[in-house]
Amino acid sequence: MKIAQIVTTVVGTPWRELTFVELLTDDGRVGVGEVRMVNKTETLLAAIRELGDRYVIGSDPFDLERIAWGVLWKEYGRAGEVAQSALAAIDIACWDLIGQACGQPVWRLMGGRFRDVVPAYANGWYQGDRDPESIAALARNVSDRGYRALKLDPFGAATADLTASELARSVRIVDAVRGAVGDDTQIMIEMHGRFRSSTAIRVADALEHLSPTWIEEPVPPGNIHGLRNVRRSTPIPIATGERVHELEELAPLLEEGLVDTLQVDMTHFGGLTGIRRVSSWAAAYNVPLAPHNVCGPVGTAANVHFGVATPNYQILEHFNDFADSWVLDLVDGAMTVDAASGGFTVPDRPGLGVRLDRELAAEHPSNGATFNLFAVGWERREGTALTAATAD
Length: 392
What we know:
- The chain is built from 12 helices and 13 strands.
- By secondary structure, it is of the alpha/beta class.
- A 5-stranded parallel β-sheet has the order 5-6-7-8-9, with helices on one face.
- The C terminus is likely disordered.
């Protein structure tokens, strides 16, 4: 079996573009991968084309390490978001092909079944007015659908600092959510790397009584000094890592104990092959993974397979029940959260078990959507319609 052709399909939504990569083999199989690239879709497509022509066409999809070595070292030396995302889409599609060729679901090829349910938490659900009553009503809807965990960013368009009134408003929102979903539902607090460390510490102190499961990216990625300050100042667990693209970048997070939950995104870290390396290293520090996942149904499927087989797997992020839920129709076999368990059940189809419907995808072409987390009203996820924010 050799890879004979690469087909890319971009699906546009109001706030994200989903890039699907299909690898067609000389014996008629089709493997599929997916990446959601923030505001750089055309750059990603160029990388997939160049790297695919150079290293992927003519390769055996079983030769995953050889393909990864070619992309990351022969060509780029130091990997970044674009190279690792291009490789991820290709790698995930290769795993799909391998599973099909073996007649087995991917999780079985990654070590077999470790768990029967992959826990999930909801994101993208808080698209209403930024007030406690509105957000609490939306949170109840999340809970009613069977989710036992949810995440929100209650801070509006804050950048670096947060005024006293805006901090109070944010706390009221989280307090209302806690009241709506009860103490048995996990609440994750997303900070999106918004704050300097002193502000993040103020926020953590103000939210501690509401028992958040974690605070996420309290300071900008790469600000290790600031992260150390936050770590020393709050007992709330810290989650981070979605904007890490190389193993070397994980060293201070793990070795200095700066992270309680690691959120590496497989679609920006070389795919299933890349994130397996991360999980093994994190396990040595007793750190679980809760992968960042803003993908549609293919990226989600890859994450579910990984979660089934990975011991130090905590929970999976999921947008597709609330933001652009129609993307589930883009594939045959889309995986959805089971209301009885609050997670994804174990898939049983060979490979990833999903197939892209190109005709339906063509009805939602690339639209150049951009997303700005520092724009007023970003939480409505209306993409290019957002208004630029003014710094505090």
